[in-house]
Write a structure and sequence with these properties.
3-stranded antiparallel beta sheet; 2 domains; 5 helices; globular; alpha+beta
Amino acid sequence: MKEYLEAGYRSESNGPPEISPTSPKQDWLLDLANRRYTSMVDLNAILHIRDRAQALGGDVSVRYARDLRPNDFKRGTVVLLGAYSANPWVELFEPNLNFVLKDDYTKYMWVLNRNPQRGEPDRWVSDRTDPQRRVYGLVAYVPNPVGDSNALLLEGTGMSGTEAVADFVNDDAQLLPFLNQIKRPDGSLPYFELLIEAHNMGASAVRSHIVAWRTKK
């Protein structure tokens, strides 16, 4: 996180390198780190969240994760898209999460289950060679550890996993029954974590369903 805040991974004392087919790997990585990329999955999620906020009389300010600073978390509810490997700000929340996404950056991504309940595994594995192409996504509605507000985390084992949870929170037919199931007797909603399994078909999430959840006081 320290290196991410300082942005040293995308700086160079003599300015950005000139890239050519014969440039060393370090120059290629530095060039990529200074560019701005996002996926269509993230873009669609942002547009749906913005539209929902505007319909409720609110607004959304969109930032690249690399441009955020701790003070930005003090300005209201925060929505973070992407797992730690793509969005290191998730690290601020992971100490208090039960479901944590991990990646070996080769073949496997998995969801660590820190406190398995009866019948649950200690992890759900997404194998990049799995013929069923299972992916997982995490929705976490939790307190903001930096500001006096809340945060919504949308993470996935790859883009399809992120798409599955983005579709879930933007589809009242899926979201509202779950919220009604976990709401308190007084009608208020607790903080929660929700794990979804889906299948990657043509880079899209299909046949998604809830596999586990937790609520917090």
